[in-house]
Specification:
Chain lengths: ~300, ~290
């Protein structure tokens, strides 16, 4: 495990390269026709499915079933979105997802940052071992913990609430967060905290008021990574939401029939779009951080 | 001075809560799940011990063997596809794209963070034959190949799954591997250029060996993820047709929750964990050897 080279530093290095050195990579005669064809094809493959999904979400059922799949909607049925939101219960599912994601995210960040600080800045015997214990959690498939957790939550009377989701997300999100935060703290010099102590600050206080502002960016990155993991999770949500009123957006979308009876294609596509739009908005504003965070976390294996 | 940074009470306060939650949610259940594999039953009816019976069953259960085989087949196909597509994209980014590079990188990365369930349903409709002809079949009909019932046969369903997961994640590997390419020192490239290496030869003899370490970590990451695949398959085929696209993860889920057999479910989960560990270790060993030889 590449613990001795901070992965985040590497990933960010790419952005800081001056453009001139990149010239070395380039061919003498760029812009050949086949390059343009490849790039054009790539754009079509990436964008068309999304465009098709959006256009279909605005079609009426008869439009969808009877007209060519390539055609534009004959009338733009924006009502599909409100149908999906209310009759399809997507509104309820989004609310559940938010209620499960927000507390889990908060807990992960607070506990993970504190643990990362303790593992990287504090000096004690056994912290190497402790980091490996946390790392073990990244490898193990979730299937290995689902059944005992189900038993515990059931016996504790937590089934029927969102608590199983919050607790499980927190526990499964911690290993990667602790590891990433410890890596970020490697860039913060220990002397800073020793100096703060001379000035009379306790170590807990230094952790809070000196180290947190210094790793603010890292916290945002880690938070984004965990947000996508939790928001997009299906396995844990499917296991612990045995009640329709507790479904998260992913479980709800998977079982999207709502009160419609037969499948209504317009609202179904609208529901898929609503699900995608949430992540799209975040991605529009923070894409560089998201890319850096997710690929940085990958060097964990 | 290390007395301050070695303050035991502070250390316990900082790491204690995280360790507690992590232990209760992950470490204890792992061991507990191990215990379940020697039992029969479920939460509602209670558990009774049945020794090694679950393991014997695993050895003779053809459905489990089929699921294991599918997991491995899928893992290898998608891993090779993801990393290869990602590498080709990374080369495209660095060799041919100028100003648009960042925009295209960002665009191709987007499906990575799309909810898998959304992507699964999108592909299901994109490849469907009935009740409406989806874009893929419509395209094939136009070209003269004719519509294909993608989800009617195991082989075709497998390929739609593979295509979908490559589409979904190639942007991720492209960015990961691109960062590896950018890290190649300029001097190396410069001298290779001066020696007359260009195009494919430059890639083959200079770029590929130098990006080997990051390729390896991409492979390990990818195989670990694909062996644990669950969301994509549940959303796209739900294991069908029949149980032809059921990986170990889904088989475990069905055994536990559809057939309420937690004991055997835990045994399958254990098998999955062992497979993940073995495959990762194997790649580690192979990559170490290659590094020392090269």
């Amino acid at each position: 495990m590449a613990l001795d080279s901070p992965p985040m530093m590497k990933a960010s290095g790419s952005a800081r390269r001056p453009g001139t050195t990149r010239a070395l990579w380039r061919r003498r005669h760029p812009g050949r026709i086949w390059v343009k064809v490849v790039i054009g094809l790539l754009l079509v493959v990436e964008v068309y499915p999304l465009l098709w999904m959006f256009l279909t979400s605005l079609k009426s059922n008869s439009d969808y079933l009877n007209k060519s799949t390539w055609s534009l909607p004959t009338s733009w049925e924006w009502g599909n979105y409100s149908e999906a939101w209310t009759t399809g219960h997507i509104g309820l599912y989004v609310r559940n997802s938010l209620l499960a994601t927000a507390p889990a995210l908060l807990l992960i960040i607070v506990l993970g940052t504190a643990a990362g600080f303790a593992l990287q800045i504090m000096v004690w015997k056994g912290r190497g071992l402790m980091l490996i214990i946390f790392l073990a959690g990244i490898m193990v498939p979730s299937q290995m913990i689902l059944l005992p957790l189900f038993t515990v939550y059931f016996r504790a009377g937590l089934s029927g609430t969102l608590w199983p989701l919050i607790l499980t997300y927190t526990g499964t999100g911690l290993p990667l967060t602790v590891f990433m935060m410890a890596t970020y703290y490697r860039a913060v010099p220990r002397e800073l905290f020793e100096a703060a102590t001379i000035d009379g600050a306790g170590i807990l206080r230094s952790f809070w008021s000196i180290s947190i502002p210094m790793v603010r960016n890292a916290i945002l990155t880690v938070g984004l990574v965990q947000f996508f993991f939790i928001w997009n999770d299906l396995l844990i949500a499917l296991t612990f939401t045995n009640n329709q009123d507790l479904r998260t957006i992913q479980v709800g979308l998977l079982n999207f029939t709502g009160d419609f009876g037969a499948t209504q294609y317009g609202p179904l596509f609208a529901a898929i779009c609503i699900n995608v739009i949430g992540t799209l908005v975040i991605y529009l504003f923070l894409n560089q951080k998201v890319m850096k965070g997710l690929t940085g976390g990958a060097v964990k294996g | 001075m290390h007395r301050v940074l070695g303050d035991r009470r502070a250390i316990v306060t900082l790491i204690g809560p995280a360790l507690l939650v992590y232990s209760l949610v992950m470490l204890v259940p792992m061991v507990w799940s191990l215990g379940y594999s020697f039992t029969k039953g479920n939460t509602i009816d209670g558990f009774t011990g049945n020794g090694l019976h679950n393991f014997q069953r695993l050895f003779s259960d053809t459905a489990a063997h089929k699921a294991l085989w599918f997991s491995l087949k899928y893992g290898v196909a998608v891993t090779v596809g993801q990393v290869l597509a990602g590498y080709l994209l990374a080369l495209l980014y660095i060799f041919f794209l100028k100003r648009a590079s960042a925009v295209i990188r960002t665009l191709v990365f987007f499906p990575v963070i799309m909810p898998t369930v959304a992507v699964g349903l999108l592909f299901q409709k994109f490849f469907q034959v009935a009740p409406q002809t989806g874009p893929m079949n419509s395209l094939l009909s136009t070209v003269g190949v004719g519509s294909v019932d993608w989800f009617g046969s195991p082989g075709k369903a497998f390929w739609v799954l593979v295509i979908m997961d490559i589409w979904r994640s190639m942007g991720f590997y492209a960015v990961l591997l691109f960062a590896g390419l950018v890290d190649i020192p300029d001097e190396v490239l410069e001298s290779a250029r001066l020696d007359g290496a260009s195009g494919l030869r430059l890639v083959r003899h200079i770029v590929l060996p130098l990006s080997f370490p990051v390729l390896m970590s991409a492979l390990i990451f990818s195989i670990n993820g694909t062996l644990k695949v669950f969301d994509s398959i549940v959303a796209l085929t739900n294991g069908g047709p029949g149980n032809a696209t059921t990986p170990l993860t889904l088989y475990m889920f069905q055994t536990s929750f559809t057939y309420s057999d937690y004991g055997y479910g835990s045994t399958i989960a254990l098998l999955l964990t062992v497979v993940c560990l073995l495959v990762t270790l194997a790649i580690f060993r192979v990559s170490r050897r290659d590094l020392t030889e090269g």
